[in-house]
Write a structure and sequence with these properties.
The protein is an alpha/beta fold. It folds into 2 domains: 219 residues, 3-Layer(aba) Sandwich (Rossmann fold); 31 residues. Helices cover 28% and strands 26% of the residues. The chain has a 9-stranded mixed β-sheet with strand order 11-10-9-12-8-1-6-7-13, sandwiched between helices. It has a two-stranded antiparallel sheet with strand order 2-5. Helix 2 crosses helix 5 and helix 3 crosses helix 4. 31% of the residues are buried. The model has no long low-confidence stretch (mean pLDDT 89).
Length: 265
């Protein structure tokens, strides 16, 4: 079974709040001192693919759309023993919306060739739109199962997907190829790569394509939504000390002041 896993590089969501900055003019988060990491839900998707390959065999190809620096997340995937990696370089400034990413991924997947399943994280840990998986399935003309936690072989040419809903578990069966978005679950917690595999990952070939190589013209895909405003909420607080010669006087003053504030509201 040939599995393609789409992964995204994002700003580390564990960055301390005091270090988080927003560029209001560009309407995007500033990198600052924060690291760029693999989206955690993409790692859940990769872990699901790795477990499937270990149990049933197959091949895993990881694909990412982003700047040259996104090579780092692909190298990590290779360190986790993915078979091949492809980076579609997009150095355009600003936010790449889910539709553009889905069309670019679809073009890259067609260029890669035959596959049985495409796995993605349920959403990205930066914007959390959760739209790329469904849009990619539409671009490829394939069925899509969302919020899955595992998959297993079913009848020949089909796969069984398990997912949790508000009313319990669902077992869905679909013919292949298909697109599956993976959610986080205790069964697909990302593993830690071995030191030896990390070292070897930098010796493995990594395919790089431009947008032109996959037939994508950045100007031909207009953004279907726009971020109107982005800012960090500001919360103002005031502190007032109550004076008094005795504890009873302070209590009376506090009660009076509290009454004034409540009436003002």
């Amino acid at each position: 079974m040939n599995i393609i896993v789409c992964i995204k590089q994002i700003l580390d969501p564990e960055i301390p709040a005091r270090d988080f900055r927003v560029d209001s003019a560009k309407r995007e988060a500033e990198r600052g001192s924060a690291n760029l990491v693999t989206n955690i839900f993409c790692e859940n998707a990769l872990e699901t693919a790795l477990q499937f390959r270990e149990a049933h065999g197959g091949k895993i190809t990881v694909v990412s759309v982003g700047p040259e620096g996104a090579e780092d997340v692909l190298r990590k995937a290779l360190a986790l023993t993915a078979n091949e990696a492809v980076l579609v370089i997009n150095d355009a400034p600003g936010l790449a919306d889910p539709l553009f990413v889905a069309r670019t991924l679809a073009a890259a997947i067609r260029k890669i060739g035959a596959f049985d399943a495409v796995l993605l994280g349920r959403e990205a840990g930066d914007w959390g739109a959760g739209q790329t998986g469904g849009l990619l399935a539409e671009e490829l003309g394939l069925p899509c199962i969302s919020f899955a936690e595992s998959l297993a072989p079913a009848a020949p040419g089909a796969v069984q997907v398990k997912r949790q809903t508000d009313s319990g578990w669902e077992l869905l069966e679909s013919t292949m190829p298909l697109v599956v978005t993976i959610t986080n679950h205790e069964k697909n917690v990302p593993r830690i790569p071995k030191t030896r595999d990390v070292m070897q990952s930098y010796r493995k070939p990594l395919t790089k394509w431009t947008l032109a190589d996959v037939g994508i013209d950045p100007a031909s895909t207009a953004a279907y939504y726009e971020v109107a405003e982005l800012s960090i909420p500001r919360k103002e607080t005031q502190c007032e000390f109550i004076a008094g010669d005795t504890l009873e006087a302070k209590i009376d003053a506090f009660a009076s002041r509290l009454t004034e504030v409540m009436r003002a509201l």
